[in-house]
Amino acid sequence: MTSADKEGQGMPLVVFVPIILCVVGILVLLDIRQRQRNPQYVAIDTQQQAYEQQFLQDEEDQEQDEEDEVSDDNHGEGSSSAVRVKRVGKKRGEKLRRKEEMRQYREQMDRQRDIRRAQDEIYEEEFRRKKIEQSIKRTDEMEKRKKEREKKAKAEAKEELKTQKLQEKNAKMKQSRFSKYSEKLKKLVKEKKLSNTNELAKLMGLTQEEVVDILKQLCNTNDEFKLCLWSGTDTFLFITEKDYTEFNEQFKNKGKMSIHDAIL
């Protein structure tokens, strides 16, 4: 192998880099010149610039909308009468719509809470009113029952006193009748032996009940009347120990005795 071949094989790749850069630069310059001369490429550039300008304008509009929103919030957030003049984008409009719905929802919730609070206050007031009415009613009923008991107790006491006075009066009258008519009645029953209380009442000018009372008192207080017999309240038999002795003797002698003989 010759020395020239060895030198060619040993040349580094870095030597070709400047050459490549020069070629690329020439191609770029030629392309730029061709674009400037060709109207099609000019239209494309103009459209791209317009798109970039529109994008920048939309960005500015969005920033302005955000500033307007901050300003609106500071002057009264949630006012349904606020009017927006500037045009907003689709996303921005959706955001504002959701915000308005949320505001209306909060207002509705606030109204419902106010209504429930007012209803609760009405119910509580009605409950307190009923409790007061029930308490007053119970108090009135207790007072009424107390007065009725007191009135009944007074009436019973009055009636008892009246009865007691009447009994005392009757007792005095009975004692007075007994003192006045007992001796006369005693004489009559001793004579008759077997007496009818109705007939005795007519003879004495008394009632049958008054005659019976006098005879019962004689049986309780007078030894002569302790063996007397009653047949109900209509018939009274005056009998003494002497009469019983005579009855026994006659019964022993005769072996029998009629009612007529016993009375005689």
TrEMBL record:
Pfam families: DDRGK. Residues 57-71 have a biased composition (Acidic residues). Residues 84-96 have a biased composition (Basic residues). Residues 56-112, 140-161 are annotated as: Disordered. The keyword Cell membrane does not apply. It comes from the Eukaryota. SMART domains: DDRGK (SM01128). Keywords: Membrane, Transmembrane, Transmembrane helix. Residues 97-112 have a biased composition (Basic and acidic residues). The chain crosses the membrane at residues 12-30. This is DDRGK domain-containing protein 1. It comes from Mucor plumbeus.
